[in-house]
Amino acid sequence: MSYSAADIQAWMVSHLAELLGVETDEVDIHENLENYGLDSAQAMTLVSKLEELLGFQPSPLLLWHYPNIASLSERLAEELQEQSDVQDTGIVKQTSGNAIADIPSLDLQAEVVLDPTIHPGGAVYTPVDKPKKIFLTGSTGFLGAFIIRELLEQTDAELYCLVRASSLQEGKNKLHKNLEQYGIGQNELSPRIIPVIGDLSQPMLGLGAELFQALATNIDTIYHSGALLNYVYPYSALKAANVLGTQEILRLACQIKVKPVHYVSSVAVFESPYYAGKVVKEDDDFSHWEGIFLGYSQTKWVAEKLVKIASDRGLPVTIHRPPLIAGDSNTGIGNTHDFINLMVKGCLQMGSFPDVEYMLDMSPVDYVSKAIVYLSIQKESIGKAFHLQHPNPVSLKVLVDWVSSFGYPVQMLPYDEWQAELIKNAASPDNPLYTLRPFLLERWSEEQLTIPDLYLQARRPKISCEATVKALAGSSISCPPIDSKLFMTYTAYLIESGFLSIAL
Predict the structure, then answer these.
(1) 51, 135: one domain
(2) Are residues 125 and 48 in the same domain?
(3) Claim to verify: residue 271 and residue 310 sit in the same structural domain
(4) How far apart, in whole angstroms, are the C-alpha atoms of residue 381 and residue 378?
(5) Interior/surface letters 81-90, b for 16+ CB within 10 angstroms, e for the rest
(6) 365 contacts 327 by C-beta, under 8 angstroms
(7) Bridging pattern class, strands 359-360 and 394-395
(8) pLDDT, mean over the chain
(9) For strand 99-104 and strand 91-96, is the pairing parallel, antiparallel, or unpaired?
(10) 400 lies in a domain?
(11) Backbone phi and psi for residue 480, each to the nearest 5 degrees, phi listed first
(12) Could you tell me if residue 41 is inside a domain?
């Protein structure tokens, strides 16, 4: 059956209203869908219902390249009528299942433009041995909570934490709740934790000129760990928070007085195939971006380039590149919404893991946070980058063997077979892998590879953390081994929290 753009538009208005629990006249067809608070699970629910209507599976990425109902319905009508011949406009034609998504070609190097007014100028940086006021982004995130813990323990500073909220009290509540869920919070929020109501994706961090200037005057040090992490969104949907937000942090660091920036980047800056199989050290250049397909990774590459430009202009910076971050090695407490835990739970529900050559190099969050704070307060760290990669990763098969020994009935399937099982078993939001289907199934590059294909060990760089381990040698900080003790700690927490069921 053929549907016009108007038909699809009316259908989407009705179903979005139902999904959000609002009246249809409250849905603006020209409003960005993300402004309705549409999360990954809700987006995938909408896509599944569209599939039933249209008879083919639209790419979930269409929701972000055509961000409102008006433009999306027009695009879907074109696909349905098979009248979407792509003109020579720099658009790359890409197939996802039976749908065709037009994804604008992207030159990441062209995105690396730092506002020329962001410059320390003639100001001289005077190191502060014991900062009294620290500004922190990402404070309501997983890693941010543990960085707060370390800053409370390793410094006497007041922590000014950027948080999105409608009021100061809501900001305090969000910070307290986040710390509490990771076993860090006490009965009351520490008086040293001061919420700053703003938005990383907005100019001047959404603070307004007066407050921005006040912070620029009073803050001694900045820890920038905030970022929007999503494995489905393209670069365009993440740019405001991850790239432009970093630019605003650098602006804050340069105004009034020079303040060092301790930036949490990612080993993802080396995802280009150029680095495949090569040993990458902390001080190696990361100029190659071609072949980085994940939107999040693209934003981290561009953002770190901006930080590097600011450093070249005279701003003191340190760069910390973690891999995937796992739970606390002592308590097992972790982020149950992250990729690792969703993948494990989803595979357990399916009864199978993909048989791929993949190394687990995740680092426990307590190690990452302790290392970041310790390294940041060492004077010799300024101007350096650090790799918080696990020094002794293990293969995915080790995890599967551990899961099997714990009583869970699982097998390893060739990736193509596992993908077929994924399509069959993760067709509803009941499976944790449901929201990750675009990440696991979308095909990229001329070779039409999925993201997991691109992450196979042969296509990945060998991240060296030798210099980082050496820099930590004077402390008691070391990365816990990935062994049965660590797996047991994580499994016990996931079962106790109700995230996993006990194997029968």
Answers:
(1) no
(2) no
(3) yes
(4) 5
(5) eeeeeeeeee
(6) yes
(7) antiparallel
(8) 87
(9) antiparallel
(10) no
(11) -60, 145
(12) yes
On whether the CB atoms of residues 137 and 162 are closer than 8 A, the answer is: yes
* Enclosing domain of residue 249: 110-393+462-496
- CATH number (domain holding residue 341): 3.40.50.720
pLDDT tens for 345-378 read 999 999 999 998 888 999 999 999 999 999 999 9
Shared domain check, 171 and 79: no
Nearest to 7 by CA among 84, 73, 99: 73
Residues 192 and 98 in one domain: no
- Give dist(CA 245, CA 227) in Å, integer: 8
Q: Is 426 within a domain?
A: no
Q: Which amino acid is at 82?
A: E
Q: Residue 403 falls within a domain, yes or no?
A: no
Looking at the structure, do residues 201 and 133 belong to the same domain, yes or no?
A: yes
Question: Could you give the number of structural domains in the chain?
Answer: 2
End-of-domain residue from the set 70, 105, 140: 105
**Distance (Å, whole) CA 304 – CA 246:** 9
Model pTM score:
0.84
Q: Where are the beta strands (DSSP E) in 48-113?
A: 91-96, 99-104
Which H, E and C letters describe 260-273, residue by residue? CEEEECCHHHHCCH
Mind spelling out the 3-state secondary structure of 432-473?
Answer: HHHHHHHHHHCEECCCCEEHHHHCCHHHCCEECCHHHHHHCC
- Residue 101 bridge partners (DSSP): 94
Q: How far is CA 48 from CA 4, 44, 82, 377, 429, in A?
A: 19, 6, 20, 49, 10
The last residue of one of the domains, among 105, 125, 141, is: 105
Q: Is the dihedral of CA 10, 11, 14, 20 positive or negative?
A: negative
Q: Residues 30, 142: one domain?
A: no
Task: Let me know the angle formed at the C-alpha of 319 by 315 and 320, rounded to the nearest 5 degrees.
Answer: 160
Give the integer Cα–Cα distance in Å for 433 and 417: 16
Is residue 304 located within the same domain as residue 337? yes
Lookup: tokens for 147: 């960085």
Please identify every stretch of the chain with a pLDDT value under 70, giving residue numbers as ranges. 1, 34-35, 37-45, 47-48, 57, 59-61, 63-65, 82-105, 427, 444-447, 457, 504
208: left (phi over 0), alpha (psi -120 to 50) or beta: left
**CATH at 82:** 1.10.1200.10
Contacts of 231 (CB under 8 A, 6+ apart): 294, 296, 339, 436, 438, 439, 451
CA-CA distance, 198 to 70, in Å (whole number)? 30
